[in-house]
Design brief:
By secondary structure, this protein is α/β, with parallel strands linked by helices. Helix content is 24%, strand content 23%. The chain has helices at residues 55-62, 109-112, 174-177, 183-195, 210-221, 237-243, 258-266, 280-289, 314-317, 332-344, 363-371, and strands at residues 15-21, 30-36, 43-52, 76-84, 96-100, 138-140, 143-145, 157-161, 165-167, 202-206, 226-230, 247-249, 272-275, 296-299, 321-324, 354-359, 377-381. The strands form 3 sheets. Strands 3, 4, 5, 8, 9, 16 and 17 form a 7-stranded mixed sheet that branches. Strands 12-11-10-13-14-15 form a 6-stranded parallel sheet, sandwiched between helices. A 4-stranded antiparallel sheet has the order 1-2-6-7, with no helix packed on it. The protein binds adenosine-5-diphosphoribose (APR) and zinc ion (2 copies).
Length: 382
């Protein structure tokens, strides 16, 4: 199979290209030839240039998080608009765009609220894996294939709703900015928007992967004096320290629960704690690690489908605040382009979060790196 070529002649036609198909969970993705239909009204077809591999994609592959399969995963992409459907006005062919899982329809209750960013057109929390008209634009071996979170970036071409396509600076380097579609806003925004980390504060970040690293960048930018990073993989510590973590802890090196260690280290618990792993156990640890009276705990990680978080309510009665956020509370089409500009002005060190780059066809190697804990963020190049 040869990579698909971009040409004006593709407009209005089916594009045949390569994509990584998840036929079922607990099985490797397989690179296959797929047919990508032209965009319908309100839709955009995009040539994908780069895509990060996120922990959430891995949760699907490992089966802890559910989405209809077969599907084309990937939800952290950068690309160029190939063609647009009827009525699309915010992007045109040739525009550089980010492909994000969180839409901004600008019409729903969340979008119209000053702070809300969980657009009601999302397909994240109970994913159906289809376009809003209930159909799919992907076919493989004669079978319809689902999309993922309305995004699907592990393919040379994808079709998305205009409301999830973020037009960005023409000068943005597309090989790097893909992670500004998920990891960076998710983590950075959790610190600066959701927790509103204050100068001089103590923060604790559970999980030092791509998302946790972005939390560290946000805490540092907000002026945190101490940032404690927690991970069971000590291989993550060197890069975390370079990003701004002041103390690294491996819970497996302690006999007592890590929250007790944090409370002792900080005197009375941290000002702000963040969970960027996605297990119930670490969510409870993050909650109990923050100060009982004024601590703020932000849940970022995606927990297994249908799991329940339980803790003694007294943990909140003392005054703790437990919060969650989606993509760091950014309204995607309004705010993500500004983050890209901040990156280009060197205000956010996005590049340091990317530890590996691989050609798209080596996607299996990319997931191996994530699963074996050898990468922070691996970016696929198309
Ligand atoms: N205790 C501490 N650290 C842990 C534990 C644990 N019990 N389990 C896993 N980790 C660490 C891993 O070693 C890894 O460094 O958590 C980190 C998770 O990072 P990634 O796998 O790179 O995942 P990431 O893309 O950062 O996503 C983190 O945020 O958006 C969500 O769905 C995503 O739940 C996921 C979380
Ligand atoms: Zn993600
Ligand atoms: Zn909306």
């Amino acid at each position: 199979m040869k990579p698909a070529k971009l040409s004006v002649e593709t407009t209005g036609k089916v594009i045949i290209c390569r994509a990584a198909i998840a036929w079922r969970s607990n099985a490797p993705l397989s690179i296959e030839e797929v047919e990508v239909d032209p965009p319908k009204a309100g839709e955009v077809r995009i040539k994908v240039i780069s895509s990060g591999i996120c922990g959430t994609d891995n949760h699907i592959i490992e089966g802890t998080l559910k989405t209809p399969l077969p599907a084309i995963l990937g939800h952290e992409g950068a690309g160029v608009v190939e063609s647009i459907g009827e009525g699309v006005s915010s992007v045109k062919p040739g525009d550089k765009v980010l492909l994000t899982a969180v839409p901004q329809c600008r019409k729903c209750d969340s979008c119209l609220h000053a702070k809300g960013n969980c657009c009601l057109k999302e397909d994240i929390f109970s994913p159906v894996g289809l376009m809003l008209d209930g159909t799919s634009r992907f076919t493989c071996r004669g079978r319809k294939v689902h999309n993922f979170f309305g995004t699907s970036t592990f393919t040379e071409y994808t079709v998305m709703h205009e409301i999830s396509v973020v037009k960005i600076n023409d000068a943005a380097p597309l090989e790097n900015v893909c992670i500004i579609a998920c990891a960076i806003p998710t983590g950075y925004g959790a610190a600066v928007n959701t927790a509103q980390v204050t100068p001089g504060s103590t923060c604790v970040v559970f999980g030092l992967g791509g998302v946790g690293s972005a939390v560290v960048l946000g805490c540092k930018a907000a002026g945190a004096a101490r940032i404690i990073g927690i991970d069971i993989n000590e291989g993550k510590f060197a890069r975390a320290k370079a990003l701004g973590v002041t103390d690294c802890l491996n819970p497996r090196n302690f006999k007592k629960p890590i929250q007790e260690v944090v409370v002792e280290m900080t005197g009375f618990g941290a000002d702000f704690t963040f969970e960027a792993i996605g297990t119930i156990e670490t969510m409870v640890s993050a909650l109990e690690s923050c100060n009982l009276s004024y601590g703020v705990c932000v849940i970022i990680g995606s927990s297994p489908t249908k799991s329940q978080l339980s803790f003694d309510p007294i943990k909140l009665q003392s005054g703790r605040i437990l919060k969650g956020c989606l993509l760091g509370e950014y309204k995607t089409r309004d705010h993500i382009p500004l983050l890209v500009n901040d990156y280009m002005k060197k205000k956010i060190d996005v590049d340091s979060v990317i530890s590996h780059k691989l050609p798209f066809i080596k996607i299996k190697e990319g997931f191996d790196l994530l699963q074996s804990g050898k990468c922070i963020r691996c970016v696929l190049l198309f």
